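Whiteboard transcription, Tuesday session. T.W. wrote the structure tokens on the left side:
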């Protein structure tokens, strides 16, 4: 289950229910100055996050004209419509194909002054394994990589491939931002590891703040 579950055939009603749940919750941005510094300077940047932690960051940045990617599946069509209704620019493609049209379109949005966002292990995993699309995008555009994640004091971790996090009513929620960085002359393998480690760090920080010991995603070992 993922964002499509919140934006299915009854998307308006389910989106309203999500809005009602989050209205009972607090949402705190941690290290938000890292994001604000890039935005205020007009620097190109890409939010990099795990698929299972995307709901709260997506909710926080709705209405900001961020360009992101939705898969070409039927679920991707549903997600694309939800994103566009909430102030995103949705392009269709897959993060595991670096030369795909979706990466080209995201680069154009970056060049036009928009931020971009990628769930770097999506849309189907493996969980918490960075796929090559973000490396291609960051290098072609010269954009900063901005790690982001989220945690909740009252989480529900779904039984999905990524253990998707849904905050329960009246939870205290955190969206955490890592130190932004540009990719240099390192190998693609090193770049993928650097991005993954950075997202893991902000995910662990969000869980510490929430006081939660989350389950490991399927196919991974607890750390």
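and on the right, the sequence the group agreed on:
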């Amino acid at each position: 289950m993922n964002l499509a579950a919140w934006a299915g055939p009854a998307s308006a009603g389910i989106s309203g229910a999500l809005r009602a749940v989050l209205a009972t919750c607090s949402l705190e941005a941690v290290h938000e100055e890292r994001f604000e510094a890039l935005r205020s300077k007009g620097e190109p940047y890409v939010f990099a996050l795990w698929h299972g932690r995307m709901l709260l960051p997506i909710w926080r940045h709705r209405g900001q004209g961020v360009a992101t990617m939705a898969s070409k599946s039927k679920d991707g069509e549903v997600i694309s419509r939800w994103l566009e209704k909430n102030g995103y620019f949705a392009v269709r493609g897959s993060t595991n194909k670096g030369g795909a049209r979706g990466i080209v379109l995201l680069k154009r949005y970056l060049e036009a002054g928009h931020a971009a966002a990628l769930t770097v292990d999506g849309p189907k995993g493996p969980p918490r394994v960075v796929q090559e699309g973000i490396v291609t995008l960051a290098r072609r555009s010269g954009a900063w990589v901005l790690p982001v994640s989220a945690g909740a004091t009252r989480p529900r971790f779904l039984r999905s491939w990524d253990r998707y996090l849904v905050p329960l009513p009246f939870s205290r929620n955190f969206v955490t931002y890592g130190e932004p960085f540009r990719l240099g002359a390192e190998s693609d393998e090193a770049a993928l590891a650097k991005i993954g480690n950075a997202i893991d760090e902000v995910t662990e920080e969000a869980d510490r703040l929430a006081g939660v010991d989350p389950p490991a995603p399927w196919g991974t070992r607890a750390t």
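Someone added at the bottom: The beta strands are 26-30, 45-49, 67-70, 89-92, 116-119, 144-152, 155-157, 165-167, 172-177.
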